[in-house]
Structure prediction request, 455 residues.
Amino acid sequence: MIKTKTTLKKVVPASSNTFNGRITELEHKLTYYQTKLDKQQNKNTVLLNQILQALEVIQNHHVDATETHFNRLESKVDGYKELLYKIEQMQLTQAKEQQELEYKLNTIINNQTKIIAQSSNSHEETIKKYETSNNALINQLTYNIKRTLNANYQYNIAQLMDSKEILSDKGQDWVNHEAEKVLGEWYTSITGEAIDFRNPRTYNEKIQWSKLYDRNPLKTILADKYKVRAWVEAKIGSKYLIDIFGVYDNWDSIPFDELPNQFVIKATHGSAMNIIVKDKSKLDKVEGKKKVNGWLNTNFAYSAGMELQYKDMEPRIIVEQYIGSEETDLEEYKIYLFGGQTAYIIFASTDKNGNRHVTWFDKNWNKQAIKNLRSSPHDEEIAKPDNLSDIVKIAEILGQDFAHVRVDLYNTDKNTIKFGELTFSPNSGLRKYEPEDHGLTLGELFILPTLDGDE
Prediction:
């Protein structure tokens, strides 16, 4: 079992009491999280031992029955080995992240030592520089600790959810309870709101419920930015797909010399993983490779709150045609569908300064007094698109089989509609709205599917 432990040095800085308080608070937080992490590692040990015991029993089993029986046992062995490998890889990643946390904490402590030394010389500018650096480091460190802890919990619980044989003595209800607990803690730590999985009411709460219980295998295919293309073509035709230049396993496989001057690089297995190239000669390939390698080593399911449709995706890179225009912004339409019916359409665009603007409309293009708190609405009036009925029709064809999905479409300057993506847990169910009760309004539209065994 890999285990790292931070030894905290006690430093009493000579600067502000408020800052002292933040250092002390951080030390307490780190100790608290380490305790929880140790407990989780102990759970890992138990789980690993269960897997090893199961492997030993199966591999020592004298099969004197049918070949089918043997194949079933062999399949079990392969499944246990894969799970064992995944857990060991997670522990290696966890150890590396713990080392990074220790490095940042030691940097804070060293800065504090320098502050003490400079205080006696009254070098206020130098002191301020170190304090500013420490403030940023403390905020980053606190965030990283929470992220590491949550990712670790989410990973282990997700493995349990798909490993019923190993924990058959505990039962599915126990697994569900643990999953709800972990996802609920993550949700509360970010939003400050509690969640009742037995009675979710708001849109965000129902998104969390869906992550755990609406696990339609089709979602894994449709959230994959390459595999979804065949499904879309079968539904509405290939003319709505953006042309692609290829799908690649790594950065070095991309034939840059054969690509046009403009293109888009995307990861197929997550969200917000893209590089827009408007001038190939200005592409920083060293930085691009570093970014892409980071994507390929990320399981997006654990990046933002157990979006389990991404869990078993093959990480790949897709390079597609750039469909933007130098003259006008690329028009994005994000259609919120519930039970296959359009409820709202979001018009989104980015201005020349890189500012994101989002305006809400109903199905008939009546502007709504709704705001996403992280994106301002457009200042100018947004004209109703000439092909609005086509946009709605296409979205409803693609969304007809789901309790809820957001269909993202593009509308080029030639009024040509192109498919963007299907999103089953928009913003991972964390979006804040104005007015606040809009979350409840969306929640009322979101009729959750009935689970097997429910009346």
Q: What stands out?
A: Residues 1-16 have pLDDT under 50 and may be disordered. The two ends are 44 Å apart (CA to CA). Residues 67-119 form the longest helix (53 residues).
